[in-house]
Each structure stands twice: as structure tokens, then as C-alpha cells.
Amino acid sequence: MSAVVVAAVAAPGVRMLLSTGAPDGFPLSTYPMFTGSGDRVVEMPTVVAVLPDGEVERLSPETIAGTDQVVQAGVTVRRAVAAGPPAARRLCGRVADRLDATATVAVVVERHDVVAWAAGDRAPLERRTVAECEAGG
Amino acid sequence: MTVPGSATAPRPATNRGAAARDPVAWLLAPAPAARLAALRILVGGYATVWAIVRLPAHLAHADQVADRWDPVGVLAPLSSPPPDAGVVAVAVAAPLLGLLLVAGRGFRLTGPLCAAAVLVLASLDSSWGQVFHTENLMVLHLVILALAPGAADALVLRRRASGAVQAEPAPAPGPRYGWPVRLAGVVVVLTYLVTGIAKLRLAGAGWADGEALRNLVAFDNVRKALLGDAYSPVGTGLVEHAWVFAPLAVLTLAVELGAWVALLGGRWRTAWVAAAWLFHLGVLVLMAIVFAYPLTGIAFAPLFRLEVLVDRVRGLGAARGGRRG
Asked: Which of B69, B91, B198, B256 keeps 20 to 30 A from B153, CA to CA?
């Protein structure tokens, strides 16, 4: 029985040695944390609220995707953007329903230089709006 | 410290390298029942607290939209999210089962049920588009405990006819109390090794130069900020100091790929556990990511002679009782 457990836990690592495409799982994992390309300039889809005075307000993972997990909120937005405008509009509508304010909800894709951001340059290099809708508060 | 009825088994002259020389004999060597029982209490206690703290999030899974469903692990066969009533039932049952597991009550039933409930809940957490890696060890340890019927042979709370709650005396040391703990320790080591292999295989040896780590720390904090979550001001501030990240990257790989030294025991084990704990502290400080299971130290508990802890707790209790008397 111990051999089975050891083999099961080690198997994802062995699979990864054979192929970098080995899928992750739970609780038997390939543990691919912090192995991304580490690019300095990245595109990040997110959802923001544009207030009547034009100010852009960041929304919480709870408001964006009904979850307390920031990564899952990010994945939700990324998938909606990748699926095209209808999916982005659906996401926009859900976020607007959760938002307790009068604002324009915008599903956007922002490009950031992450190192420059850390140094204090918080404005995106580019912001592209994929979908917009109104939240009534 | 040793007290009457001590749980501590005689320490072998040396077991340095025993795991490599004869792994089967090492795995099956006798151990005191208190060692396994202490692991049951520590892991079960952690899982119980986790299930209570995460209860609102687990209940919220019932309100999720189905198009976010991306199941993993034991939930992978499900084409749609489990029924809301099932989610609520498992979420509520998990902490109660955890309490029973800690107490050692009905362990042959509550042990496997608790492990199954926590496995389902942790899988559910990871079934919405992102697999998390913070609870793997806890789940694996619970599964091992569930497969070890001897886990409730000691340190079990039973209610006597008088109504008093009392711990039962421990049985003699035996192999059935040793292998689950050692297996849990091997699993700890394997998970870190696989993590290190993943970095080298997916990102290459260049990961050690620190540039990728620096950008990943920056990226993770930017992502948190853009998605309205708390980010680490320390990690963000450190990104400007590029030179810091090369030694951090090398140390990270050393902890992960050097995890096997923990099985040597003694100072090697203690030094590795300290390094691994500091690694997780660094992740917390730089990226605001909480690996609570290792940070509490419970993830590393199987690598230690836990019966010593039991003796110390009993010694403290005896000393307090003596003072009162």
C-alpha cells in the first residue's frame, strides 16, 4: 500500500520528466507553481468599474467572479475574453448585478510592464475594452 | 522529559541513511502508538480548522455559475457541478468529521469519511479554472491516516460511565504505528522534489538566474492589484532590487531538490525543515500567498518523533496537576 501511495505521488513528477505537457491534478500534482515564462510585459484581462466622474475603480474577486480566489477570478475573465464578445458581455452583466454602485462596468484587457508597475508606474501601457454594461447600484 | 506511562520508544542507535539502505525495513520499523496518534490529532486538527474557516467559501460553491466548472481530481468525471445540497452537506459534515477524527471516535468510519469529505472540498476549490497547491499535502496526509487503522489506538477520548472524559493508555510499539507516519514523511519529501523538477523541466536551468522569479513576483502582485485583492508591498518594493532574486531562486531550488535530506533525520532533517519553512515565509512576505499547512509546521510533523511532543504535553499537564495538588 505504501508503494502505491509513493508511486502515485511521484508519478506526476516522472510524467513531467517525460513530457512538459503533463497535466496538473489534485491532490496528485505536477506542482507547476512559479514556472511561468516570467515575461516583463504581460496582458491581463480584468473587470473594472468606471464611475460617473471617469475614475476607474478596481473590483474584488468576489464581485468579478463570486469567488474569494483572485487567480480563479482572473481565469474567469481570461476565458470570457477568449470566448469572444458575447461571453464577455455575459460576464459584464453578472458583475453589474453584483455591483452595489452606479457605474459603467467594463471588461478590459490591460498591458502592463510589471517591473515598472512595481516601481510606481501604475498606468497600463494599453487598455482595450472588450465589453461594457451599466450597473444601477 | 519523560513521565510515567511515557509514549517514547527507545531511540535507535542510529538510523542515518536507513531509508536508503533498506527502505522496507525502515518503513516497517516499530514505532510508539502515540507517534501516529499525535499525527492524527495534528493533521485532523488542521483539517478541522481549515474546514471551519473555509466553510463560507465552500458553501458559496453552490452559487457558482456552471460555465466556470473545470473539474479536477476525484471530481473530474462530473460534467457539471455537484448538486447544491450535496455541496452543503459535505461542507457542513467535514468539520464535524474532523472533530471526531481528532478525538479518535469511530475512527474506522470517521477517518475515511473525513479524508473523503476534505478531498472532495479541496478538489471542489480547485475545480473552477485554477488548481491550487496549498492543500495537497494536508489531503494526502489525511488519506494516509484514513488507511491506517492504528491511528486511533492511542490518545483517544472516551467518556466513562462517570461522565469524565479520559485518554486511554497506549498499546505497545509496533510496525502499524510507524509506516503511516514515515510514509507521510516520504510524501512531504516527494512533493517538494516534484516541485523542483517542475521548475527545471518547465522553465529550465535558467530559472536559477532570478530574472524569471523577479518577473513572477512582480506579475503576481500586479495581478492581485488589478483584480482587487491584497498584494505584497514588500515583494513589490523588492522587485526594484534585481540582484536579490538570483540567490532567492537558487535557495528555492536547493530547498525543493534537496528535500530528500529530510529523510536522513537528525540535524539534516531539522535544517531542511527550517529552510522549507523560511521558504514558505518568503512566499508569504513577497507574494502574499499563504501556504498555511507548512507555515504552521504541521506539514513537517511526520518527519519528527511526535511521541516526544506527547510526552512533553503530558509532562506539562502532570506538573500543573502537581502544583494544584
From this structure: B91
